[in-house]
Amino acid sequence: MSNKQSPIEQEFISLYEELADPLYRRFVFKISHAERSKDLVQETFTKCWEYISQGKEVKNLKAFIYKIANNLIIDEYRKKKSISLDFLREGGFDAVAKDEDNRIVENAERENVSKIIDRLPSKYRDVVTMRYVDGLTPGEIARVIGETENTVSVRINRSIKKMRDILRIYGKQT
């Protein structure tokens, strides 16, 4: 029995070591639940491995992993909406208020930042999230989204400017 790994297995393991922590931070930032975020990191890599082990070609494995992660985040939002509606039907608004009070207080800062980021156009939202939540460099972001590093840097700078503008507007409203 050989312990020799194929090039795709080596690349996959290397990407797991590189991306597990940034993906975990991304999931926590997006869904605000640490244990579920750990599960989603594992699910991301499991789905990726299942896909490539079927012999299907992936041109950019890192971009593919982020695509899977983003789809899982969307699925979580859909589930959360459904669960919240069911909870309201069963327990009423008072039960929701009591259960959510502590979580709202604990996550207020993250939620405010998230709201500001969510107000950005998607091309800006994606790069600022990859840069400051996932910790990717502009060069890595460029490879993930298929743009030049210069384009990514410009988008990051424009994102920050737009966030400042949103903060100014938001500050005037409160």
From TrEMBL:
InterPro entries: RNA_pol_sigma-70-like (IPR039425), RNA_pol_sigma-70_dom (IPR014284), RNA_pol_sigma70_r2 (IPR007627), RNA_pol_sigma70_r4_t2 (IPR013249), RNA_pol_sigma_r2 (IPR013325), RNA_pol_sigma_r3/r4-like (IPR013324), WH-like_DNA-bd_sf (IPR036388)
Gene Ontology molecular function terms on file: DNA binding; sigma factor activity
Pfam name, any one: Sigma70_r2
Entry superkingdom: Bacteria
Swiss-Prot/TrEMBL GO biological process terms: DNA-templated transcription initiation
Ranges in coiled-coil conformation: none
CDD domains in the cross-refs: Sigma70_r4 (cd06171)
Protein name in UniProt: HTH luxR-type domain-containing protein
Organism the protein comes from: Candidatus Taylorbacteria bacterium RIFCSPLOWO2_01_FULL_45_15b
